[in-house]
């Protein structure tokens, strides 16, 4: 068994697609209209095009707003992405205008940073020692 798909709820799928591809560096995998404005929209790492997909899921369900608000208020990331060098990614993304809620922090065997994805979520970057 392996993880095939994970998702983050986003306020605006087109805005999310631009952020996750143009800024974070993922690539679009699937973009399937679902009727109305919603799409089955996934991105993947360019290093693993057949790997785990991230669904940029519309945040329209009534439970999503309170859930995401509580996570953000408590500083809890919606998901976590592995990077080779958190301080270098922090500097690269900050230069692109990305807002961080946590600068690179060593936490035992990992270094983490937390960013705002501009679509209603906090995302953690993690580097294992």
């Amino acid at each position: 068994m392996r993880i095939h798909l994970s998702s983050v709820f986003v306020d605006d799928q087109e805005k999310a697609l631009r952020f996750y591809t143009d800024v974070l560096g993922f690539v679009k995998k699937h973009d399937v209209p679902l009727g109305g404005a919603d799409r089955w929209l996934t991105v993947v790492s360019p290093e693993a095009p057949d790997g785990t997909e991230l669904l940029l899921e519309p945040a329209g369900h009534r439970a999503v707003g309170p859930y995401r608000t509580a996570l953000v208020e408590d500083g809890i990331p919606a998901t976590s992405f592995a990077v080779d060098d958190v301080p270098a990614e922090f500097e690269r993304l900050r230069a692109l205008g990305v807002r961080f809620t946590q600068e690179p922090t060593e936490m035992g065997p990992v270094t983490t940073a937390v960013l705002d994805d501009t679509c209603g979520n906090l995302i953690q970057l993690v580097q294992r020692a």
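The first strand starts at residue 5 and ends at 10. Strands lie at 5-10, 27-33, 39-44, 53-58, 79-82, 100-107, 110-116, 122-128.
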